[in-house]
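User: What would this chain look like folded?
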Amino acid sequence: MAERLFAKILVANRGEIACRVIASARRLGIASVAVHSEADAGALHVRLADEAVCIGGAAPADSYLRIDRIVEAAQATGAEAVHPGYGFLSENPAFVEALEAAGITFIGPSAEAIRAMGLKGAAKALMEEAGVPVVPGYHGTNQEPEHLAAEARRIGYPVLLKAVAGGGGKGMRRVDGPEGFAQALASARAEASAAFGNPDMLVEKYIRDPRHVEVQIFGDGRRALHLYERDCSLQRRHQKVIEEAPAPGISPETRAAMTEAAVRAAEAIGYRGAGTVEFIADGSDGLRPDGFWFMEMNTRLQVEHPVTEAVTGIDLVEWQILVAAGAGLPLEQEQIRLEGHAVEARLYAEDPAAGFLPATGRLARLAFPEGLRVDTGVREGDEISPHYDPMIAKLIAHGPSREAAFQRLHAGLRKVELAGTVTNLGFLQALCSDPQVRAAALDTGLIERRAEALCHLPALSPAARTWAAMVALDLSGPPAPRQGFTLWAPLCHLVRLAVEGEEHEVRLCLGDGRLEAHVGGEVIVLDWRAGAWWAGAKRAPAWHREGDQVTLFGGAPRRIEILRPGAEAAEAQGGDVILAPMPGLLRALRANAGDRVAAGQPLAILEAMKMEHALSAPRDGVIAEILQPEGAQVDAGAALIRLTPEEEGQS
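Assistant: Here's the prediction, encoded as structure tokens.
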């Protein structure tokens, strides 16, 4: 144990991870300082901290990435140490050095360790020297396209092009043969250059049926130990969706080989603090001691660290603070036990049906069920901002077995009440109940192969339409005696609803303490009992209403619009105007007024939620007008480009 803990730490982050760090600091009796952008002045992490300092504008480059302002905030508040969370400056060696120069402790590894693992090619060469298995590939400095193509032929197709300074799937392309290499290389380089300022590539053998298994390690600068492994194979575009610990189907021999390799990797660079060594494994014949290879090391706390905490009972943030304060490793390797199974799902504001486009909106309703650990940085009433990652929460379930953990997570996801923005909640429920997932038949391509089924929402049931109609008529509460009678005959109402562009009609007839609904050719009889409306054995779900929008819970939230008498559906633009699908920065325009364009041709790049989205021509035509300048910050639905038919453009 350290002789003295820090009295005060600054958390150089936002959202759920800032709240998570503040919670551990509070348990240790340490005061916390939050930093925030102007957009985050009312954020949850600001409310939870003991002090808060505004460090700039909404864009990360103006606030959370400003090393100078964060160092100044730490000095001004008397913070002795800074916890970086994950993302932003967490793996920036210049940030570590700036803090050290100011006499402030960085709660994490040394700048040298971060640099050693920051460039994938150099890191893999270092790992080879340490005896850690590395995927066959080329990690050299010769970046001539002809040389890289020759290396790809030597390695053998398919190969994977990866940005040397990359992460999050950016600058990454699979190439199945020499004919597609040049185009893939140019595309990957352009993306890497835009994202990281470094176009250099490495070339690796593409592993078929790959599984992503990572080992949580912890070091004190001299020696390291492991806290077992996690499986993160359920990914979409190289972004993790569901993570679990331990890895299903791993043998004691494979675990020993993998964890020993991870500890060697950490000790080779004198690692201090929490880190993760990521491996890619060949899952075609199960996990084997000779079938895994080093991918990269993340020199920070991972998003998915709660599943490791759940199965080991260890607070990793507390360990980070203790070791940074000068303590040795709190436990010996043999004292770290593995108990049960844990699984985590990342709940995002995004639209699976629209290619997982990020979404914004106000969280009009947000409630989580008991029985799950919920790590979140937002509350009911908060806005999902276009400036930051659209994560709403991480939901973690722990159980005595993998099946029990997945069952608890799936049941918990169905009880989440969330309204005000579109989310991936239904997608997560489908993924948790997918037969391949439950059977642990995992690989990193599973979600992409099954995306259509996983993203499909079933038609709204007659019962659900009935519940929505009851809410529309304010009939969701207990019935009053003789309610709904006129001249001693049942009173009937016709309710029109719209669900995802499709109109429905529900005819509700009110009797004495009961309702009868006529919907879609079906008759549903409802009665009030045990404090709720029931349709046979099915109880009415929880709901939220805001204006003419009703959201039904009890599964994938379904948003239903109440159509008022005489209301007409808005007419579509007819393909003449290209609209922004979300708020964002109009990063680039690919055409000018007067240009002839073909259907599907990229016309603009919109940057939102840390991702770039290409907007394409909906049909052949001529650019009549550019409605927003390049570099403009636009709202969702903003008109960007107007097209005219080709013959009109020629007149």
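The two ends are 81 Å apart (CA to CA). If you want, I can go into more detail on any region.
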